[in-house]
Amino acid sequence: MDQSKIRNFSIIAHIDHGKSTLADRILEMTETVQHREMVDQILDSLDLERERGITIKLNAVQLKYKAKDGEEYVFHLIDTPGHVDFTYEVSRSLAACEGAVLVVDAAQGIEAQTLANVYLALDNDLEIVPVINKIDLPSAQPEVVKEEIENVIGLDCTEAPLISAKTGLNVQDVLEEVVKKIPAPAGDPQAPLKALVFDSVYDSYRGVIVFVRVKDGRIQVGDKIRFMNNQAEYEVLECGVRNPKEVKLDALECGEVGWFAASIKSVQDVSVGATVTKADNPANEALPGYRKMNPMVYCGLYPTDSAKYNDLRDALEKLKLNDASLQFEAETSQALGFGFRCGFLGLLHMDVVQERLEREYNLSLIATAPSVIYHCYLTDGSMVKIDNPAHLPEVQRIERLEEPYVTANIMVPNEYIGAVMELCQNKRGIYKDMHYIDANRNTLEYEIPLGEIVFDFFDKLKSCTKGYASLDYEISEYKKSDLVKMDILLNGELIDALSIIVHRDFAYTRGNSITVKLKELIPKQQFEIPVQAAVNGKIIARTNIKSLRKNVLAKCYGGDISRKKKLLEKQKEGKKRMKAVGSVEIPQEAFMAVLSMDDDK
Ligand SMILES: Nc1nc2c(ncn2[C@@H]2O[C@H](COP(=O)(O)OP(=O)(O)OP(=O)(O)O)[C@@H](O)[C@H]2O)c(=O)[nH]1
């Protein structure tokens, strides 16, 4: 293959600006996918992605495009997710490309993640091709948006295609721009093999399937390869590309993006960001890997059926292959038994992992409330990192507690600035700055505790701005805070998995709302159950769950057997996601009750 005819690129955009729709159109137009096979958002291969309408995992496809200059080009298109939780996946896919198509919604203009993604692309030295999408919308203002991109990002938009990914209008111009603007890969086909691992999945028959970008040299079936980070060696049994169906080839050439299988059964041997070389003619040094992403949010995951502990470990190991930012280690809870403390990039990531474990590995899980990592300085001068509130040392031993803050950039139309400032203040935010974007919008810069962001900040932000604000944040630093551990007691028994760390000023209101919430969520039992919130052994809030009087079946006197069955079925369903803790059955929702706490007094 002629290397000068290869183009490797990603599509980047703010969430919902139309990346996946554009990818669909491109696949259709290059006839990579036959029309009858076309389902919407074909690159979103996880069921979950299609249901939620968001892209979570990156996906790479090869497609062939006959350009107006009469030549045929080979494109490798890597789709990327848009949500702030998945920035890590974006930077991974960008490292495999020479260019990026930047999609901006003609009705919305630039948003927080448009900028964040552009900066990632610039960090990776990518050529950026701006594209204005959704010009079919009556509210589209393509000329205004073009000007905005030129002013705010400094990208020349004179030739930016004005498209509708939905109808296909002018999508071909995007492909022509890709050919013209994005450089061909620069690697040396004669040099020793260097391929960057950017993703992997586990296949039960063939072992780990490794996705690579060949930077130098080539990979051929039969080659003995070596992972440079851990020296593990394997023989390549199959290799190829996706279009998006798997296509087997004899070799992956220099500059190509594809996959190989080498009967790798030990999932620990493959890590994304690693460099693959040849065992008999190795490269001198590895490619620069990825910046390691540290999880921001932790929670405990426990099987509802304790016998499934090993299955859960297996599933987590396999999922980690495909999701490098997931972390986990074994932990035990007095209330929930054996499980794992897992680290995630954010709440959406946590949600997605939990759902994938349940669907793809058929597990039923209880997840505890998410927590950030606190730095706990002890009176003896040492510091411990606390990712599980239950493990906080006794108050007497604590000198001070620090919590992580983020620098949040919130892009907001002028009329909502007041509402957003109020929200940030309520969430203990510290005002930093305000940047002017255009006559209608500004960016507010705040420092906010991550612990507040992971709760319901995003939802609150959306609702107080009717969805017009957008948020991007990055971790800034740890700051001292007046934090306390709040314990929850059910029937007088401390439930370790329900403990949380809160700011002292919020303890009473949150204690109250959490006990009320638990009262709603925990089903009545044969006896009355007191629900109490305590700080340092002192009860600060209390409610009672009244004892059960009626039985569910009492309502259906004799006759209607199908209704009776239905009720019993429902009860069984509900049971699955419950965990008996001491004498009380606790449903999954109860562990998440802290997330829906309202601070409005
Ligand atoms: N009217 C109109 N709607 C569009 C166009 N392109 C995309 N949409 C719609 O915009 C919504 C978001 O599109 P997606 O392609 O899912 O957005 P995305 O950027 O891939 O979002 P994530 O994958 O979640 O990051 C969908 O409802 C699309 O149907 C367009 O050109 N015109």
From TrEMBL:
Membrane topology: Peripheral membrane protein
Cross-referenced CDD domains: EF4_II (cd03699), EF4_III (cd16260), LepA (cd01890), lepA_C (cd03709)
PROSITE patterns named in the record: G_TR_1 (PS00301), G_TR_2 (PS51722)
UniProt binding sites for GTP: 16-21, 133-136
Single GO MF annotation: GTPase activity
Keywords for the protein's UniProt record, in alphabetical order: Cell membrane, Elongation factor, GTP-binding, Hydrolase, Membrane, Nucleotide-binding, Protein biosynthesis
Annotated catalysed reactions: GTP + H2O = GDP + phosphate + H(+)
Tr-type G domain location: 4-186
Main subcellular location: membrane
Homology family: Belongs to the TRAFAC class translation factor GTPase superfamily. Classic translation factor GTPase family. LepA subfamily. Belongs to the GTP-binding elongation factor family. LepA subfamily.
Protein name: Elongation factor 4
Species of provenance: Holdemania filiformis
Name of the coding gene: lepA
